[in-house]
């Protein structure tokens, strides 16, 4: 037990350590972490700026961990990336331990190997996103429930529910995707089924909503404005903007996520399409075939219900939810690995039988290899070579030695996703790779979600998709500090609270990350209603703000247009050339 854990941890640490030094930081969340690391008020409320004027558009739980690391080690790229790399590393031996208790050491090793070979888990851990921390919490919850089914004491059930609640603090309702599978496992397992299910779900609910309830007692004038909410409400941000807003609007409403171009059209084959197939689709056919064949004979096994339910629920959500980033599929990786880990030994034992179940493993393997060939062909790779290898393995399966078949089959199945990880290039600084990390070849469709990157950039910046098509590794417009602008503002600052106010996250973020007080009007999407023109005028008259830095072209939609019109009407444009093409307004006379 101890030796496999040590080896798996070392291998995972080497893999994700290599990824860390080839990774990059998310422009928006890095800026928020900088502010949260310098102000306890910003830390508690999850504010994007150290003045705590506006929150991020998520719950702050995942960013708390990064902010604490920054307080200890300083604000550096590797410090921002370290929590994700550590979480991804720890998930591998934890998954092994959970599957080993369920299905044996061989199953645990297979599950760990599949997770290590998961391109989406590798790619996501290379950017300071919170998904690796969420996945670690959920795998820990599954491990705790596995122990609870063996132990009559209640501490493991409570721990499982609490870990789901911690996952909610990290990434909100995404943590609840696995909750039905955990509750169903309680209902199938031995012992006090109903009481166990109630204890788990009740604990998960209490821990999930604890922060929302606590900050709800703080008066509005004593806390930041909530991004992602028209009514300045955390509940609306969590369950509207990040909940129903995604599932119903799919990125179409002004306050919804910018993820609309990503993921491809919703449908049953989305997880195998040109955006998600190379991230999570490699062994998905094998996992689904194994689950379909093995669940009925093991229907009374609560852990088949747990891991199979997690896989099916997650696959359905990701397949039909409008507008998802491909890296959201990190949520599926542990369940897919666990089902393959437990299912392969079972299907291998069937291979020696004369029943129809003996063909489950060959069929699942061939379907996965055919899918891998399709994915590689899309990227211009040698998909034909994968297809030939599958034919060879199938022929050996009919007449070859069992050990040789097993070894060659494992190589064929894992070679393609491992190669996909190996050819993933380093993340370019300030590029869209940090907003949408993907493994494998960095094509426009993979990185931007569409063939024309201007479509995605237009959504992020809130401007029409004009101008030349940017290169794949091109930095986001306005994603770096402009020295000339900074010098102009610093020499004219007279004690204002904010150096300037701007209307999009990509422009505010580099200045916030550098430690300058900037007012991020409009929040992440630019469409948040704070501050209204009257509030903006009050900040200027009160001496807290003087300069606005905006995209001020006519015809901008919604509040972007309103702010630009207000600036043109009340402030004087400064004749300063900026690389971003934005306009600096001096509002000293307001």
Count helical runs.
25
Q: Which structural class do you get from the secondary structure elements? A: mainly alpha
Strand order in the largest sheet: 2-1-3-5-4
Quaternary structure of the protein? single chain
Q: Provide mean pLDDT, rounded.
A: 87
Indicate the low-confidence ranges by residue numbers: 249-254
The count of domains is 2
Beta-strand share of residues: under 5%
Structural commentary:
This protein is mainly α and 590 residues long. The protein folds into 2 domains: 2-419, no CATH class; 483-586. Helices cover 58% and strands 3% of the residues. It contains 25 helices and 5 strands. It has helices at residues 2-20, 27-38, 40-45, 61-73, 77-103, 105-116, 119-124, 131-148, 155-171, 179-188, 193-215, 234-249, 277-280, 284-294, 302-320, 333-351, 360-378, 383-399, 402-422, 444-448, 453-461, 483-492, 505-513, 533-541, 558-570, and strands at residues 500-502, 518-520, 547-550, 572-573, 583-586. The chain has a 5-stranded mixed sheet, with helices on both faces. α4 (61-73) crosses α5 (77-103). The N and C termini lie far apart (71 Å). Residues 249-254 have low confidence and may be disordered.
């Amino acid at each position: 037990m101890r030796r496999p854990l040590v080896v798996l941890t070392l291998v995972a640490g080497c893999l994700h350590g290599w990824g860390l030094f080839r990774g990059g930081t998310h422009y928006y969340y890095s800026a928020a972490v900088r502010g949260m690391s310098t102000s306890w008020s910003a830390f508690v409320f999850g504010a994007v700026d150290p003045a705590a004027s506006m929150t991020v558009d998520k719950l702050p739980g995942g960013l708390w961990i990064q902010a604490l690391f920054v307080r200890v080690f300083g604000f550096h790229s590797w410090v921002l990336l370290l929590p994700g790399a550590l979480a991804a590393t720890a998930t591998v031996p934890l998954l092994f331990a959970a599957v080993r208790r369920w299905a044996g050491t061989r199953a645990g090793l297979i599950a760990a190997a599949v997770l290590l070979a998961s391109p989406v888990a590798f790619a996501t851990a290379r950017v300071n996103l919170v998904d690796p921390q969420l996945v670690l919490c959920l795998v820990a919850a599954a491990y705790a429930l596995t122990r609870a089914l063996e132990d009559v004491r209640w501490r493991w059930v409570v721990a499982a529910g609490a870990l789901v609640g911690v996952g909610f603090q990290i990434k909100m309702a995404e943590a609840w995707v696995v909750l039905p599978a955990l509750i169903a496992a309680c209902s199938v397992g031995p012992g006090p089924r109903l009481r166990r299910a109630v204890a788990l779900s009740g604990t998960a609910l209490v821990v999930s909503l604890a922060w929302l309830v606590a900050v709800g007692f703080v008066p509005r004038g004593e806390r930041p404005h909530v991004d992602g909410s028209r009514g300045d409400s955390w509940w609306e941000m969590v369950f509207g903007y990040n909940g129903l807003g995604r599932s119903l609007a799919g990125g179409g409403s002004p306050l919804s996520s910018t993820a609309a171009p990503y993921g491809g059209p919703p449908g049953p084959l989305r997880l195998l399409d040109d955006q998600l197939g190379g991230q999570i689709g490699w062994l998905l056919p094998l996992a689904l075939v194994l689950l379909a064949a093995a669940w009925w004979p093991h229907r009374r096994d609560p852990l088949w219900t747990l891991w199979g339910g997690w896989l099916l629920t997650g696959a359905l959500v990701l397949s039909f939810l409008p507008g998802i980033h491909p890296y959201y599929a990190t949520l599926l990786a542990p369940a897919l690995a666990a089902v393959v880990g437990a299912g392969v030994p079972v299907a291998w034992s069937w291979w020696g039988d004369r029943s129809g179940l003996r063909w489950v493993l060959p069929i699942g393997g061939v379907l996965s290899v055919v899918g891998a060939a399709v994915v590689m062909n899309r990227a211009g790779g040698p998909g034909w070579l994968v297809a030939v290898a599958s034919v060879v393995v199938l022929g050996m399966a009919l007449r070859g030695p069992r050990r040789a078949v097993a070894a060659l089959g494992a190589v064929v199945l894992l070679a393609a996703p491992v190669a996909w990880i190996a050819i993933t290039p380093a993340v370019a600084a300030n590029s869209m790779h940090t907003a949408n990390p993907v493994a494998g070849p960095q094509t426009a469709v993979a990185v931007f979600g569409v063939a024309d990157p201007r479509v995605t950039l237009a959504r992020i910046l809130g401007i029409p998709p004009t101008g030349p098509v940017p290169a794949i590794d091109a930095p986001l417009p306005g994603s770096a500090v402009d020295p000339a602008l900074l010098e102009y503002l610093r020499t004219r600052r007279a004690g204002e609270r904010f150096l300037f106010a701007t209307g999009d996250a990509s422009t505010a973020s580099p200045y916030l990350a550098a430690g300058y007080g900037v007012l991020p009007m409009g929040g992440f999407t630019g469409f948040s209603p704070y501050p209204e023109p009257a509030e903006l005028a009050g900040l200027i008259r009160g001496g807290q703000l003087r300069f606005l830095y905006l995209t001020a072209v006519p015809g901008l939609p919604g509040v972007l247009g309103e702010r630009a019109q207000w600036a043109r009407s009340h402030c004087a444009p400064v004749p300063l050339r900026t690389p971003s093409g934005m306009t600096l307004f001096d509002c000293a006379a307001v």
